[in-house]
Design a protein that fits this description.
mainly beta; single chain; Neuraminidase; globular
Length: about 325
Amino acid sequence: MSRAGAGHLAPGSDPSVLPGPVLIADRDNNRVLVVDPQGRVRWQFPRKGDLAPGQKFPVPDDAFFSPDGRQIIVTEEDSQVVTVVDVARHRIVWRHGRLNKPGGGTSRLHHPDDAMMLRSGNVVVADIMNCRVLEMFPRSSGVLWHAGLPGTCVHNPPRQYGSPNGMFPLGNGHFLITEINGDWVDEIDQHGHVFWSTHPPGVTYPSDTNRYGPNAYLTVDYSDPGQVLLFDKSGKVLWRFRHGGARGLSKPSLALPLPNGDIILNDDANDRVIVVDPKKNRIVWQYGHKGAPGSGPGHLNNPDGLDLLPPHSYADSLH
């Protein structure tokens, strides 16, 4: 990945809070970017010529590195597909689902969200409108395992799930499932065991819950104003970042922990990616201009997904 140009960060940003570059799914600009801590774009897909004739790459919602860092798994939720991009070759190498054709069964998806690659090479995904979670096998495009009952989006794990929008692996064969309907978070395994379920307190639209630390879980409230919440499996609030007015978040969709304890998140409708220091309770790094969408240097347009460059990616945290 090459480094080019001057940095573009919001005033007051501290690049030292990040352990390395950030992968951003810049949804409404139809691109994914890697931005270094100084705010310089180091990699982008697609560039001119990256897409084969007839290929499209619309509205990438989420993007995560594969465990070896050689691929990026992109969820194009509103286009009904999951796409894998080869980082070095700048090429789409696999896609599951049919572009702009929602459906069910083993070959189609209906509003997939947060696809991630496991160390086995399999891909897991929450399939929101089909009320299910899946594990797929890219080499055959088959579905190895699924849970949920399409057409019945209610909280009744492990048989039924209420519009799941996140299926985050925990590295021990367990997954954290976030359910929009009823505002639930569940820890499950593939054998149908439910370890716990709870409501993130005071959250109206939970999104993409993942683990922050021992018995500490991180979620965001995809609302306006939005919030970031740390809670334990009993539902006790450990920390909350919520402000109104000019300091407020607008439809944040994903927050991830950083090695130093800070939290990086997409503030989607505010067109920025930020880092919050929970101890200082303030924003310490920002890429993008709040409320000013764009595609030029330093601008984003409804960024909806992020990850860190290996060895600090979400997949690396599963060791």
